[in-house]
Design a protein that fits this description.
With about 240 residues, the protein is mostly helical. It has one domain (about 5-235). About 65% of the residues lie in helices and about 5% in strands. It is built from seven helices and six strands, in the order H-H-E-E-E-H-H-H-H-E-E-E-H. A hairpin with a 2-residue loop joins strand 2 (about 70-75) and strand 3 (about 75). Helix 2 packs across helix 3 (about 80-100), helix 3 (about 80-100) packs across helix 7 (about 205-235) and helix 6 (about 160-180) crosses helix 7 (about 205-235). The protein is globular, with a radius of gyration of 18 Å. The protein starts with 6 loop residues before the first helix and ends with a helix.
Length: about 240
């Protein structure tokens, strides 16, 4: 039996361990791309940790001391810091797995429509709920990111990202469900409903779906950008 104070740490470990093990399979040895994976996880992670620390200080969300080890970095449990390593790492491995099994991009003609729909949704939700910190910042952030990636960068991988996120969202919701109290006496992470829509998917604030999309979109975009730069550099040499 795992002591309660290690529950969050156990979630981090279980989130990353299986994708990490599968990344060493010879059919698709993703671990060999560590020099692209590591910065793609860490750089967006710094941004999100700053956001996390800010919202924690504001009381937008917080952490139940019952389920964390008691080691803190600034005002964040160390488990929360590792969350932004384990989740993105697992999602990049999943992205690679989806690309391996779907050799052909199945959404090349639909990615603009998907982006357009998400952008329109972000505009509507953020404009109506500008006074709710979590809702507003999440949807504004996603709005800016998709606009820049879809219409300025114009990459070819965005359809693959949307397909992968359809697979990622299931384990993402399972993890977030446990963190927000599913199956537990109390939530590991609590939210002030005055700062969000108050709409829950079971125990999960609906904003988490779009927060997760923003995080993983930045991870995957940087991952693809670094690989593209490496290929270009290799051709020059």
């Amino acid at each position: 039996m795992i002591p309660e104070k290690y529950y969050y740490a156990a979630i981090d470990f279980l989130t990353i361990i299986f994708p990490l093990v599968f990344s060493f399979l010879p059919i698709n040895p993703v671990y060999k791309k560590w020099k692209f994976i590591l910065p793609s996880v860490l750089l967006p992670g710094v941004l999100f940790l700053a956001w996390d620390a800010w919202f924690t200080s504001m009381g937008v969300w917080g952490f139940n001391p019952r389920y964390v080890s008691g080691i803190y970095l600034f005002n964040l449990p160390i488990e929360e810091v590792f969350f932004f390593v384990c989740i993105p790492g697992a999602c990049i491995f999943t992205y690679e797995a989806v690309n391996y099994f779907f050799k052909k991009d199945v959404l090349p003609f639909y990615q603009r429509y998907i982006s357009g729909f998400v952008i329109a949704l972000c505009i509507v939700v953020a404009s109506i709920n500008y006074d709710k910190a979590y809702t507003a910042l999440t949807f504004i952030g996603l709005l800016v990111a998709i606009n820049l990636i879809q219409w300025v960068w114009k990459p070819k991988f965005l359809g693959r990202f949307y397909l992968s996120y359809a697979f990622i969202i299931i384990p993402f919701l399972i993890v977030n469900g446990i963190l927000t109290g599913s199956g537990l006496d109390e939530p590991i992470v609590w939210y002030d409903n005055n700062e969000n829509l108050g709409i829950r998917i079971a125990t999960i604030p609906v904003e988490d779906v779009f927060y997760g999309m923003l995080l993983i979109l930045l991870n995957i975009s940087l991952y693809e950008f670094l690989q593209k730069k490496n290929r270009q550099h290799s051709k020059i040499e």
